[in-house]
Amino acid sequence: MTPAATARSSRDLPHPAREEIRLEGVLHALSDPVRLRIVRVLAADSDELFSCSYFDLPVTKSTTTHHFRVLRESGVIRQVYRGTAKMNGLRRDDLDALFPGLLDALLAAATRQAARPAND
Amino acid sequence: MTPAATARSSRDLPHPAREEIRLEGVLHALSDPVRLRIVRVLAADSDELFSCSYFDLPVTKSTTTHHFRVLRESGVIRQVYRGTAKMNGLRRDDLDALFPGLLDALLAAATRQAARPAND
DNA sequence: CGACTCGTACGATAGACATCGTAGTACGGC
DNA sequence: GCCGTACTACGATGTCTATCGTACGAGTCG
Fold this sequence. Notes:
Two copies of one chain form a homodimer.
Chain A: H1 3-6, H2 23-30, H3 33-44, E1 50-51, H4 61-73, E2 77-82, E3 85-90, H5 92-98, H6 102-114
Antiparallel strand pairs in A: 1-3, 2-3
Chain B binds a DNA duplex through helix 3.
C-alpha cells in the first residue's frame, strides 16, 4: 500500500467530484469580483500552483479563506496543503470536460471587461 | 397603419445600457436555477418574445416578477409591455457584442448539465 | 361599466453571504 | 522545545436575496 493512498490527514480538504460540479455553483462562485479575480490569476498559468498569500486581495485573511473555500466547494479550484502553505490550482481539466469552452469564454469575457475604458 | 407601431404604453422599464452590463451581474443572474431556466427557454427561440406567464415556473407570481426584474436589471433580458402582457426577450445582440461566445458557452453548458444522468 | 387577466408594489420572513476580528492549529526552522 | 508563518475556526454583523401573501393598477372584452 502506498501511504499516499491511505494517508488521510486532518488537513484533507473536501472537493466535489467532477460529476458533482453544478453550473449554477460555478456561476455563483464567479459572480463575486474577488473570486473572479483569483480565478483570472490562476488561469494565467494553469500548470502552476499558487499559495493563498500570493494573491493581493482587498480583503482580510479571514475573508480570503472564505472565498477560497467557496471556489473549492463549487469545484472551480483544487486546494492542496504543502507544508504550511495551501496551494491553489484551477480545475481546468474537470471544467473543460464538463462544460467545454465555458471557462475560456468566461476568462475572455473577464479580460474583455477589464479592458473596457471605465474600470478594473 | 397599425396603431401598434406607436402605441407605446406610459409604463417604461429601465434597462442598463450595453456598456453598463457587468459580467459579475450576468453571472449572478444566471446562478439561480429559476433564472437559468428562463434564459434557456428564451434562448431556444431568440427572435421570439415570450410573456412572463408563458413560463411554467415552480414559484409564485411575485417571485416570478422578482426573477424577471433581476434578469432585466443585470442586462440579460429585455422587457417590453404589450397590452397587459410583458414580453421578454434575450439581449443576445448586446451580450454577444460585449462577451463574444459567452452566452453560447453558457447555454451549451446548461444543456449539457441538463442532459446529465441524475437531474433536471 | 364590470369582470377578468396579467403583472406590480409592498411588507414580511427566513436563510444566505461578505466582511471583520480574535483566538487557535499545523508545520517548518532555529 | 519554541517561535514565526500560513491558514482556519468561530462568532458577530449588516446586507442581500428568494420566497410568499395580499392588495392594487393597467389593459381587454363582454
